[in-house]
Amino acid sequence: MHIAGEASWSIEQAKQIVQAINDPNTLWIGEHPPEGIAHADNRQALQHLGRESGLLIYNAFSGFDPDAFGAVSGTLTGGGLLLLLTPSLDRWAEYADPEAERITVANYELPRPSHFFTRLAKRLETEPTIARITFEGIKAAQTAIPSNQPVPVSTDPSCLTEDQSTAVEAIIHVIKGHGRRPLVLSSDRGRGKSSALGIAAARLIKGGYQRILVTASRQAAVESLFSMAANELGMEAHGVELHHQQGVIEYVAPDRLIQEKPRGDLLLVDEAAAIPTPVLIKLLEHYPRIAFATTVHGYEGTGLGFNHRFKKHLDQQRPQWREIQLKTPIRWAMDDPLEQLVFRMLALDAEPAQIEPERSVKNDQLSVTFPDQKQLMEDEQQLQQFFGLLVLAHYRTTPRDLWHLLDGPNLQPVVVTHDQQIIAVALLASEGEFSTELAEQIWLGRRRPRGHLLAQSLSAHLGLRTASTLKGLRIMRIAVHPALQSRGIGQQLLKAIQSYARKQAYDYLGVSYGAETRLIRFWQANGMKAVRIGVHPGASSSQQSVMHIQALSTSGESMLSQARTSYTRQLPALLAEPLSQLPADLLIPLLKEIELPPLSNLTEQQWLDAVAYAFGNRAYDYTQGIIKTLTLSSLADGLLNESDECLLIKRVLQQQSWSECATALDLSGKRATEDRIRTILQKAIVNYADSATADIIRRIKN
Asked: Which of 346, 481, 580, 623 has the smallest CB count inside 10 Å?
């Protein structure tokens, strides 16, 4: 039910309904709840996941958080009632929503009216299953809401549906059957995936297995799993560790699993779509018995990206993997109208256009346009395809990203179409143009203006005092339809963006992304220069971020030159610590493009030190300086094969131990590893040596 009007009046109507229904399982989200009922604000909403509500009130006057609304709407039981309190539909888009602060950007004003709330109002106004209360009266639902049909009861006493019972059996089979045959449970929310994981874990512990590991993107996500496991074991759940006889069910965070690799009979990964694909791949490599549960259309991460990226990896590396889909809802009926409405409101069901991989697409048939956000909002089919591609390209796109897409004040969508279907998209963000005074505060690390990632990083991390005064354009997202990838479409899209940026008088174009070798090579091949590697894994990707810049003006050229100098100066120290464990294959393409002083600047003594180490027995520790110089030059000039490059990166630049390097390169020990380094450096010295040094080498060899 929708209550629309002035805030005080709407809240009073809701309180009267709460009093009349008197449901003990009432939950009020937002301000001004009646006394004596459970209530929470938007940031506390996730704490109520896994619980059930018979009456749910969402007070949007306190701020409409799409993520929170999507989450708590799933707590409503079949036959329950949702009250949504909003301003009048014709005024909602003008309402100063308190949650809007979360998409604000320094230097920019949010659009008025809001495109996001204009769209929401239209969806609600035309929704036939909604009853609406306004000051003028009550408008009944135009179509009857189907009664909540009972779900067929499973023959398993612990399971509520046959789907769930099948899932429990399949999870147990993962540990009892052949190894390296992962299981994937997929469904929309509310189908009992987490509970199935908990039931199976408990039964395995009762059956004598000693340690079941559980992981998820956040600890709170597995509360229902542990609650169900505790119930199955006949005990109370206290936290996220259950002990029964000689066994334990234990939550371990994903990063700890990767770093410490604790032993377990089985690893259960809940809400896998909310975990970055590189992390899932590492878990798959180490744990031969593993089950993943993923939500197809979820408030905190979609299974579409999981389906595209991770399942492709499963096909290649674990072809015997198995998938089970849970379709029967547990708390409500099939095709529940509220679930479908929430999907439509928040674009949880957004998917890219249906395109066959066999489609022929010629570059001269493509249309690249730069629609404004209002145009995107007014064409629902275009919006669904656009957002669907963003969802597919990024593992954790949430409903709040839809709000940001439509109302982000510094954003520019880019659309590539073919035969009236969107086949590629990008999302651009304007940055910088700060005053000299504010730029200095950013440089000193005293100010961090929201929404200016590149401008702030260029100043605060690379030390460029005036960089944030320039006008920059950041590529936030870029995605090509998976059926049409590797055909040059992304490159054509990027060229259009570069042309647009020049016409709009931007000083530079940039991008920041989670490091992957193929992405590094893509940006390098398209004229972008690396200027920074993040020292900590990104919160959204669990990968080190890499930043690339392309200069578009004279000021941009000057800034890029300074940035590259700073980057080259910082990089050796960063590789030794804190990037000492960054994979060498990521570093190779980055190190090959750095600019270094010519080796002709080396002194005679430096050449002598190099020769004494490579062709003699001079100690490594006393020769590290010249070894590092020759290593960087050899990498930048592409002088070595990949195996030699990896060894020099690990030992010389990242300063990994001799034993680590020997293990990584499959060498017998320290002596074999150092002999290999001496041989590599001999090649480098012969390649770079001046005539005097060459004479010394000839004498030594003779």
From this structure: 580
